């Protein structure tokens, strides 16, 4: 009985560690973004292709997360020692095996769904490696690449359906700019560990306060294309209202409320702001979901 209980505890810890390594929530979020992109176009997509494509996207994000943790394991040991690799719950060899499995899975499933998705999967694998080993220390360029990669499931989903459209491009721009904002503020949150690890990020070069200010300016700018979508169609109006009111406004309001207390942002303030930004992202998916529904005026 004790042996069985010990096995169950070990198995549970192992599953939890791999879920943390893969960042399952971000994988599922990307899969959902792909599905919403496919549903945003009028073309018919079979349920099988939709499921296979979503799985390919999930594995693409998973491999990016794993290779990032492999490269960042020494930096994570400073400010995130609880993560699987620095914490020792997953060995480096096991992480590499997971990375190879995820790369193979996204490539095979992508080509099975469509040649376009297969090519996208290959590009994602290549960019993920380039980002983790090089672009992460190029200050703003790395954040720009991550924003584009994070938005791409929406676009490739629409491509799988019937192709891209102007309204979808405007929505994608709003999401991409907000992702740039998210990534810049993230550098402020991680400034201590990144500086100790010798990484060149927006926050380590400009300072935490200036990085946060840049992130907020980007967040405010993300509201411009979101509001512009309101003039394109009723669905665009639904997207714009939800995105501005529930994604952009809470973040900007939190920033200005904190500025009334202190004229500069500290690392702890950046961490609180990052938490607010993380919570508002579910409304970004809601904005896309309501814009998929047919609205006749």
TrEMBL record:
<feature type="transmembrane region" description="Helical">
    <location>
        <begin position="52"/>
        <end position="71"/>
    </location>
</feature>
<dbReference type="GO" id="GO:0016020">
    <property type="term" value="C:membrane"/>
</dbReference>
<feature type="transmembrane region" description="Helical">
    <location>
        <begin position="118"/>
        <end position="135"/>
    </location>
</feature>
<protein>
    <recommendedName>
        <fullName>Ubiquinone biosynthesis protein UbiA</fullName>
    </recommendedName>
</protein>
<dbReference type="GO" id="GO:0016765">
    <property type="term" value="F:transferase activity, transferring alkyl or aryl (other than methyl) groups"/>
</dbReference>
<dbReference type="InterPro" id="IPR050475">
    <property type="entry name" value="Prenyltransferase_related"/>
</dbReference>
<dbReference type="Pfam" id="PF01040">
    <property type="entry name" value="UbiA"/>
</dbReference>
<feature type="transmembrane region" description="Helical">
    <location>
        <begin position="237"/>
        <end position="255"/>
    </location>
</feature>
<feature type="transmembrane region" description="Helical">
    <location>
        <begin position="92"/>
        <end position="112"/>
    </location>
</feature>
<dbReference type="InterPro" id="IPR000537">
    <property type="entry name" value="UbiA_prenyltransferase"/>
</dbReference>
<dbReference type="InterPro" id="IPR044878">
    <property type="entry name" value="UbiA_sf"/>
</dbReference>
<keyword id="KW-0812">Transmembrane</keyword>
<feature type="transmembrane region" description="Helical">
    <location>
        <begin position="140"/>
        <end position="161"/>
    </location>
</feature>
<keyword id="KW-1133">Transmembrane helix</keyword>
<keyword id="KW-0472">Membrane</keyword>
């Amino acid at each position: 009985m004790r042996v069985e209980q010990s096995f169950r505890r070990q198995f549970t810890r192992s599953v939890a560690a791999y879920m943390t390594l893969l960042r399952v929530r971000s994988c599922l979020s990307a899969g959902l973004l792909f599905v919403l992109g496919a549903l945003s176009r009028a073309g018919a997509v079979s349920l099988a292709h939709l499921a296979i494509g979503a799985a390919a996207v999930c594995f693409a994000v998973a491999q990016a997360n794993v290779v990032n943790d492999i490269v960042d394991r020494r930096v994570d040991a400073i400010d995130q020692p609880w993560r699987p690799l620095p914490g020792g719950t997953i060995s480096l060899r096991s992480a590499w095996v997971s990375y190879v499995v995820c790369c193979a899975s996204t490539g095979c499933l992508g080509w099975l769904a469509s040649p376009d998705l297969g090519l996208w999967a290959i590009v994602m694998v290549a960019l993920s490696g380039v980002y983790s080993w090089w672009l992460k220390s190029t200050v703003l360029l790395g954040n720009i690449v991550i924003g584009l990669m994070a938005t791409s499931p929406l676009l490739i989903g629409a491509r799988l359906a019937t192709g891209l459209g102007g309204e979808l491009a405007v929505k994608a721009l709003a999401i991409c700019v907000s992702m740039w904002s998210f990534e810049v503020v993230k550098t402020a949150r991680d400034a201590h560990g990144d500086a100790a690890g010798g990484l060149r990020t927006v926050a380590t070069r400009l300072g935490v306060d200036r990085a946060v200010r840049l992130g907020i300016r980007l967040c405010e700018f993300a509201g411009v294309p979101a509001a512009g979508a309101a003039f394109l169609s009723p669905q665009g109006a639904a997207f714009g209202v939800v995105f501005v009111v529930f994604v952009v406004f809470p973040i900007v309001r939190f920033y200005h409320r904190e500025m009334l207390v202190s004229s500069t942002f500290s690392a702890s303030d950046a961490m609180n702001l990052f938490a607010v930004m993380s919570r508002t992202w579910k409304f970004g998916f809601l904005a896309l979901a309501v814009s998929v529904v047919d609205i006749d005026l």
